[in-house]
Amino acid sequence: MKQKVNLFLVGAMKAGTTSLVEVLGAHADIYMPPIKEPHYFVDGLPKNIYEPSKFFSEADYFKNNFPDPLHIAQLKNEMQYQKLYSLSGNEEYLLDASTAYLHAPEAVERIYEYNPNAKILIVVRDPLQRAFSHFKMDLALGRVTGSFENAIQNELLAYRNDTLTWNSYMGMSFYNKQISRFEKRFEQVLVIRLSDLINERPTTLERLAQFLSIKSFSVTKTAHKNQSKELRFQKVFYVLKRLGLKDYFSKIFSPSQRQKIFSVVSKKARQHTDLCEETRTAVEEIFNIESNL
């Protein structure tokens, strides 16, 4: 690696980062590595964010499969992180787009120790919509079962008892303190709203280009990446995941085969959040304090 990674898209998760990465990676001055989210600067990722197959290891990936594209991993050492960027050329920026960095408590200091001159990008989304999108993703992956109402009711209780974790649906929709931590450490931090990226795309991308001091981005229609799906047999998939059978499924079928199977057993997710008025009011009051968008 000729230079240190100097551009970090730190989150927020389920706030449009995948669409933005596609724009960034298409620019001649920005190198996007094979693993979109390497998460090298976190001590450990909770299972509800990253739970790799029992047949996968980062060491085997770099030995046998690099540079095949991966969405997410957690790199264990500096040698792996350096190799991730070993195919870069003369790009001005090397990009790390690990979306847990925004909320993982240790990430700010670890990134700063690595490169205090790095530029930081943050994308934020309406906090309730982000939380709901996060929940729908977990349903589709078989990580959870039940309703969004029940999940939020449990998190409201945890919030009032001061036991809400940073990786919860509500916790990852809190932005104020998280953005402030990066702004206190790094001189160059740009916060982008997903609504601006969608509704004011040319202006927003030009602001991004000026922030990076590079040529303008080509303005294309916003593609909705990572659209949420609902499993037709969600409870069955939840049980299969708890039994560990999903790992064997991933080992037997290729990514393209898995995608075809998933398209058959899934349907477009509902867009309404299914919260009763009392729950919605309570959670929105908290988001007004903790996210302030």
Present the secondary structure layout.
Elements: E1 7-9, H1 17-25, E2 30-31, E3 35-37, H2 58-65, E4 70-72, H3 78-84, E5 93-96, H4 107-114, E6 119-124, H5 127-140, H6 148-160, H7 176-185, E7 189-193, H8 194-199, H9 201-212, E8 229-231, H10 234-242, H11 245-252, H12 255-265, E9 266-268, H13 277-290
Parallel strand pairs: 1-5, 1-6, 2-5, 3-4, 6-7
Antiparallel strand pairs: 8-9
Question: Describe it for me?
Answer:
The chain is an alpha/beta fold and 293 residues long. Helix content is 44%, strand content 11%. The chain has 13 helices and nine strands. The chain has a five-stranded parallel sheet with strand order 2-5-1-6-7, sandwiched between helices. A two-stranded parallel sheet has the order 3-4. The two termini are 38 Å apart. The mean pLDDT is 88.
Q: Helix- and strand-based class?
A: alpha/beta
Shape: globular
Low-pLDDT regions: none
Percent of residues in helices: 40-55%
Distance between the termini: 38 Å
Strand order of the largest sheet: 2-5-1-6-7
Strand content: 5-15%
- Could you report the average pLDDT, rounded to the nearest whole number? 88
How many separate helices? Answer: 13
The biggest sheet, with number of strands, parallel, antiparallel or mixed sense and barrel status, is:
5 strands, parallel
